[in-house]
Fold this sequence. Notes:
Helix content is about 80%, strand content about 5%. It is mostly helical. Helix 1 packs antiparallel against helix 2 (about 55-85).
Amino acid sequence: MKQNQTMISYFIIKGISDVPQLQAPIFVLVLLIYLSILVGNMSLLLLVCLETHLHTPMYFFLANLSVVDMTSSTVTLHKIFLTFLTGDNTVVYLSCLVQFYAYASLSGNGLFILTAMSYDRHVAICRPLSYNIIMNFTICLLLASFCWLFCFIQVIPYLWIISMISCYSSNVVDHFFCDLVPFLEIACSYKSILERLSNIQGLIIYALFPFFLISTSYLFIIRTIMKIHSSIGRRKVFYTCSSHLALIMLLYMTLMSQYLVPSNNMGFKKLFSLFNTAIVPVLNPLIYSLKNKDVKTAFRHRMGKCKADILRIVD
């Protein structure tokens, strides 16, 4: 529905595809992916909570990452389900702003939690004798709290500027959720300010700052690993970082692919957004489950206890 530069009270979400024949397959596919996100991340979260030997800083941050993945996916994918089930693809203005705020905050939070995990790996490998003192519960709680609070606060300028936009050329959002890029496509005012803020803040806060901290941590880690004379010892130490490195590379490659696509190519942007909000949260618990002996041991132990409880009830 076109509107000639007027205030609007609701947006129309186009979704992943506007082809009617594709709506049912898309719904089923996204639903299966979403259920996988919930099952995988909830299982990992429960393991971290129930297994005492996983009560360590690394798994504390990993539990935070699981919460971020589940929440972010719910925020971005729920409209796909509602549109298919009810046929209503409209979102009121305030709900659209809330969805944008939540998604922007959570997506940044995941990257900062991975940065905190890199510091944890740095202390564990480079200063193992002081690890329990440095990475105590208070420090971990402060780091996690900073990640959550900072990422929710730094999105407020975007929200404030978007709320001041007085007119839109259209109320059709060419996306499957309310994101900044489709807002810029239809906004009649403050576009240049939002673009500059997005470029500056995205480059400094989401790219250079975390990358610098992660790179610094791993430079110290590599230097420590190189001092180990045994090749088996070097591989063993590096293996403890492999899952974390895999998550970082996956997230950075996804974000780079998403934002390097030309702004006028919304089809590819939606595909990369779907990968970032649906596929990455599925892969995160899988990477840690398949590559981490502690998680696999905890899973087998918990399954053994459940089996024993079931047999005891049956008997």
